[in-house]
Amino acid sequence: MKRHISLAGIALATALAVSACGGQQERSAAGSGVDESSCDPGTGRISIATGNSTGVYFVVGGGIAQLINDETDLQATSAETGASVQNIQQLVAGDYDIAFSLADTAADSVAGNGDFDGAQDVSTLGRIYSNYTQVVVRKDAGIDSVEDFKGKRISTGSPQSGTEVIAERMIELSGLEPGDVKQQRLDLTQTVDGMKDGSIDGLVWSGGLPTPAITDLFTSMGEDLELLDLSSLLPKLQEVSPVYEEASIPADTYELAADVPTFKVGNLLMVRNDMPDNLSCALTTLIMESKDTLVQVHPAAEEIDPEVATQTGPVQLHPGSERALESLE
User: Which residues, at least 6 apart from 93, have a Cβ–Cβ distance to it below 8 Å?
Assistant: First the structure.
């Protein structure tokens, strides 16, 4: 591996995301031709599916791509996408080599549930940080809970995103029927614009803390907004999947009056099972050992830890990643 880090390059990491966006890519041969029992990444191209351009996936994914470029002989790019469901579908199709995904969507993919027609041939490099569900509403919209979404214009995130999966589960578990909510399937940039111009009453977002676009929204109109307490929904969500965990959004995240109870879900870096063991070992080791560098990209990376990385629930660690994490613990 190369042994230098370009912090200037890391600062520009998000610029990488446009380079691979929207295009069909050949299945990468990265890591092939090297002893799979090693932890040598070899050479080749790596593509990473991230998420909305104003979300944390995009920022951290760009940072990981830059890290791979700086520290290995691989050539990495990252792409803006609709996030979790789309990411795994395109990962399986061979469009990408690594895909960010919420743990609940990843669990659906290996079980063949939800948006997935049959179990998908995927595994994970590990858990990297948590996404916090953030429901922001306009104070003048009369929304005190998810039950109050009825008749309201609510952005539930990009189509086929992990946010949409969570939003629709919360709506269903709150006793609302399909059509009760004026659901707006918008990306985060469009969502924030809609909140600002009054065309949207509230939004659901699952992302790391802080999410840049949500920071912008509270900076612009914080006195007119409220972040909802979602703790009452957690027991019902845990009946659906054990990946949902109790959490709170600290007050200083968005200069709130107090911490706000919510729930979190782990973020997994998904790969196909046919990724060479040596490559998954090398990538996992690089990410785990580069926490300090990635924290400079986004503070959510502070959660990166080899022990936490093994907490992937029903999703299996890729064999090479499992070997890497065992050596790092």
Answer: none
- Tell me the domain boundaries of the chain: 7-128+268-328, 132-265
Q: How many CB atoms lie within 10 A of CB 75?
A: 15
Tell me the pLDDT tens digit for each residue of 246-282: 999 999 999 999 999 999 999 999 999 999 999 999 9
pLDDT averaged over every residue in the chain:
91
Query: Shortest CA distance to 144 belongs to which of 222, 250, 226, 235?
Result: 226
What number of CA atoms fall less than 13 Å from residue 144's CA on the CB side? Answer: 0
- Do the two domains 7-128+268-328 and 132-265 of this chain adopt the same fold? yes
Q: Which pTM does this prediction carry?
A: 0.87
- CATH class entry, domain 7-128+268-328: alpha beta
Residue 153 β-bridge partners: 182
Contact (CB, 8 A) for 291 and 122? no
* Alpha-carbon distances, residue 68 vs 112, 261, 278, 281 (angstroms): 31, 36, 15, 13
Rounded-to-integer distance, Cα 82 and Cα 80, Å: 7
Nearest-angstrom CA–CA distance, 142 and 88:
36
Contact 95, 78 (CB under 8 A): no
